[in-house]
Amino acid sequence: MAKSFGVLIPEMVDRYDSDYKTIGFICSLHSLMFMTAPIANVLLKVMTPRNLGMFGGLLAAISMMCAPLANSVFELGILISLTGFGIVMAVFSTLVTLARFFPKSFIFSNSLTQFGVVCGVFTVPIIVERSLEAYGYDGACLILGGITLHAVVSAMILRPPKDLPSRTEENTQLMDTHSSRDSHSTIENEKHQGCSNGGTESDKDGFSRSNTEYMQVVVDFFHSLPSVGELFKSFILVEEPLCTLVMPAVFFAKYVFYAWILFLVPHAEGLGIEPSRAVLLSSIAGIAGTFGSIVFVVLLHFNYDPTIIIIFCCLMSAISFFLDTLSSNFIFLAIMACFQGLFLFVLQSITSVMAKLAVRDADNIPSALSLFLFIEAVGIGVGDTVSGTYT
Which residues cross the membrane (predicted)? Predict the structure, then answer.
């Protein structure tokens, strides 16, 4: 969806009488909302992945459909932010479900789902461009919102594995436990009141017994709250210290990828390449990225170490960026774009790869995913801002 905003930006600039810098920032809010992944992780504790994904997809679709109703840039920013937050909930619920269904092959299964991202990069902007020509800005947003509704359909098929109790069963067990505890506490209090009052049943005794039960509930509630030490120990970076070491890898991988994909064409135009040929570099990089993603999945199928693959892709990407400064010839830039797309698109999976490899307890994968998605959003924002400053 983020790529589709590039088609709508000129129309948004004219519609709201704004400038490209402001509208570009508004559209980037869609990706920056990945910083709300920890909120999605908290919501997942009280909702099932299916309900969370359906709610997120519905929120994203409705917000996108309502975008033409915005009367100002501020209102447009709120709607695009809500769209991004909904997508975060849908994506996060899908990742958590994949981790539960495929605990041993999570990296491989998630890499397969990344083909949807690659297909979306090529197809959705074309659909939005044709819709903009045929139906205008309002119709294009409506169609884009309809495409987003597919997230609701995808979330409807999410279900917990058979050996994992659903959220409803867990809540039922928890309610039964609390009910039995409350019943036991009530019986004990009645016995205590009966012994102290000689078995009399007056209104005053009933009020005292009710007050005592209320106070007992309050005391039990405060006793159930975790201490500061327990909260600190449950923090993901404390439970899984290896996550601290891989956070920079996630940050810089997203920093480089989004800065590269955003400024690939402007960089070529700055070197004197014609705009039509500069756009061709983006297509070349996308085709190479598709091939690289396929190779990555095949290597994972044959049990190659994903860490070694990612290190190799990082090394080759760095070399290609160093070589990129040697010439401004179109053929040379096309070869460099091919190499960069081949390796950088593989790094799109680094969030899920690191979330799987950096944790020792599988129950901590959702927390690690929420943390790395937050770091990913920070990397995207910093990469786009810094690269735009020096481009």
Answer: 20-44, 51-70, 76-99, 106-128, 134-158, 242-266, 278-300, 307-323, 329-347
Using an 8 Å Cβ cutoff, are 313 and 301 in contact?
no
For residues 360 and 374, state if they share a domain: yes
At 210-231, the pLDDT tens digits run 556 656 655 565 455 455 444 4
- 3-class DSSP assignment, residue 324: coil
With tokens 């980037």, the residue in question is: 28
Do 265 and 281 contact (CB within 8 A), yes or no? Answer: yes
- Cα–Cα distance for residue pair 109/99, rounded to 1 Å: 9
CA triplet 94, 247, 51: central angle to 5 degrees? 20
Q: Residue 173's pLDDT band (boundaries 50, 70, 90)?
A: very low
Q: What is the tally of structural domains in the chain? A: 3
Q: Do residues 366 and 41 touch, judged by C-beta distance below 8 A?
A: yes
Q: Which two tokens stand for residue 183?
A: 């019943």
Question: 60, exposed or middle or buried, with CB in 10 Å at 0-12, 13-18, 19+?
Answer: buried
Q: How far apart, in Å, do the first and last CA atoms of the chain sit?
A: 24
Contact 31, 258 (CB under 8 A): yes
Query: In angstroms, rounded to a whole number, what is the distance separating the alpha carbons of residues 266 and 390?
Result: 12
What domain range is 264 assigned to? 231-391
Write the CB contacts of 35 (distance below 8 Å, at least 6 apart in sequence).
Answer: 373, 374, 377, 378
